[in-house]
Amino acid sequence: MRPDFLDRFSRLDSPVHRLPAAVKLAATILTIIVTVTLPISLWGYFLGTAVMLVFVCSISRIPWSFMIKRLLLLEPLALGIAIMALLQPGGLAIFTGIVIKSTISLFTVLLLSNTTPFDQILRVLRRVGIPAILVTILALMYRYLFVLIDEGERLARARMSRTFSTNRVRRWHSLASLISQLFLRSTERAERIYAAMTARGWK
Amino acid sequence: MKGKTVTFSAERVRSNVCLARLLILGYIHAVFLSPRNGEPLCAFPNIRTMHIPDGFLDTKTATATAVLSVVGLGSSLRYASRHLPPRRIPLIGLAAAFIFVAQMINFPVASGTSGHLLGATLAAVLLGPAAAVLVMSTVVIVQALLFADGGILALGANVFNIAIVGPLCGYGIYRLIHTIFRGDFGRLVSVGVASWFSTIVAAIFCAGELAWSGTVAWNAVFPAMAGIHMVTGLFEASITMIVIASITRARPELLNDNIPSATGRERTTGFVLAAILLIGVLLLVTPHASELPDGLEKVASTLGFEHRAIPNQGVPAPMADHVVSGTGSTTIAVLLAGLVGAIAVLALSSLLARILLPRANASPPQNSGERT
User: Fold this and answer.
1) How large a percentage of chain B has pLDDT more than 70?
2) Which of A52, B35, B152, B166 could bridge B106 with an S-S bond, Cβ 3.0-4.6 Å?
């Protein structure tokens, strides 16, 4: 697993990537707040925002195929809830409003996460006054996520190379014991990390 | 006349609910594709069912849940920085990564669908409630910021449902049942029931937020969310039980450390967290449940005519029954289903616990001899 599998394009070089992280974070949150609070009847604003986002995306050099794939992946969830909105009086208006708003918000967050490395976002969060422990935990999680995924895939490969056929019950059992093994290994790794952190003066 | 209009609206509600259920099942079939043989362990982009995207909540709901989440997260952070030993801090970070990975692992379920763990109760049982709140919040925050799974403004609501209600409810039920059923067997049973319940309760809070925002009608979203998660919860319960059973076998000391009696300071954190849950219930769930007394009042008013007639006629039952079933408050139906489900889950999880625990527990000497 690539270390940056969550935000693959966050380390490209483009005018958007070079902007300070604080500006991008603030712009993202502002865009989402305005998008969510404005009534859908102001369609000019939504059209304008969409055009602006498309423009920002094209100068940030993130591949369009990636953005579209991510959007298509996340959209069904929004649609799933939005469809339930159809079941009430005046549902169609609510439905279109929700779908447009959530799509714009999704696109904005995807742009943020793929133009800003996560450590820069964390630095901004720390400066804004988010407690140090929470930021440390977030940073540790981001750092070790792909390590754990690799470890899990190694365990799964070892299991697969030893089973020729399996049924559902056995598969559940082996996957669940894989999860428990992963937990045991991560507690051991946490001990080692703690030792390394204290050795470097963390308290 | 009156009775007729009531039954008509009830029928419409019921058909709407049926439609919603069909659509949702179809959606689940479409999104959770089956893992084929030889596919990598983590089909990475694996969508979770309970994350609310942006645009679904109005300002008041988003603000209220954000305040609740900040208070809950803050008290857990305070607890972690004052009372947890410093070597637990890296463990919380790694446990968050662990839960994230565990959520990505696909389990094959019937007919080409697959499910995955939520892990709130698992985290709470393994690490304790305060640490579990931190772990799950970290997971939700990273999912929202990096993967856009769950909105930024809806982050408060998502943290509240998944990272505060889930672990706390799970832990509370786990401790409660574990005081009744002791030992390894009791732990497994209580883990099963707790993870079933916490999944459903988190889903109900999710439904409450959506309904409070006026996005979706409570009558549609509540049965849909509660119904789906009564089934998903069974999956969650069995996976959590298998994981805990396997940890019990490998490293029993990890689980035994975890039940010390609460000291005074810990109790204040506990009270704060419990208060948050209570406020959440009052704010998000009870206003909608008031449809329930409304329905009853309606029945009472229609019955008002009959009440005078009942003693004379002597056959009140069929008529009363008819009106009640006609109004058919979905809330009552779902609550009843939940009650029946709870008993069934208790039985099922004790059965599963019996299967999962090594027979050696029952009669150690002979069996351990046979095994080798």
Assistant:
1) 68
2) B35
Residue in B24, B120, B134 with CA at minimum distance from that of residue B77: B134
Q: SS3 of B108, please?
A: strand
pLDDT in tens, A87-104: 777 778 888 888 899 899
**Which DSSP helix (H) or strand (E) runs through B210?**
helix B183-212
**Contacting residues for A1 by C-beta, under 8 A, at least 6 apart:** A146, A149, A150, A153
Helix (H) or strand (E) holding B69: helix B59-83
Nearest-angstrom CA–CA distance, B188 and B170: 13
Which of A179, A194, A200 to probe by mutation at the B interface, max B CB count within 10 Å?
A: A179
Separation between Cα atoms, residue B258 and residue B247, nearest integer Å: 13
For residue B42, the cross-strand partners are B105
pLDDT over 70 at B51, yes or no:
yes
pLDDT average, residue stretch B218-247: 88
Q: How far apart are CA B360 and CA B184, in angstroms?
A: 12
The string of DSSP letters for B28-48 reads: HHHHSPPPPTT--SB-SS---
Paired residues of B114 in beta bridges: B108
| Angstrom distance (rounded) from CA B371 to CA B339 | 41
For the entire predicted model, the pTM comes to 0.81
pLDDT of B121 over the 50 cut: yes
Q: Can you give the pLDDT at residue B281?
A: 82
Instruction: Check CB contact of B107 with chain A, cutoff 8 Å.
Output: yes
Cβ of A141 and B40 within 8 Å?
Answer: no
Alpha-carbon distance of A192 to B139, in angstroms, equals 22
Non-local (6+) Cβ contacts of B297 within 8 A are none
pLDDT band at B37 (very low <50, low <70, confident <90, very high): very low
ipTM: 0.92
The alpha carbon of residue B53 is apart from the nearest alpha carbon of chain A, in Å, by 6
Contacts of A181 in chain B (CB under 8 A): 246, 250
Q: Which residues of B touch A131 (CB under 8 A)?
A: 74, 77, 81
- Neighbouring CB atoms inside 10 A of B165's CB total 28
Nearest to B108 among A168, A180, A189 (CB): A168
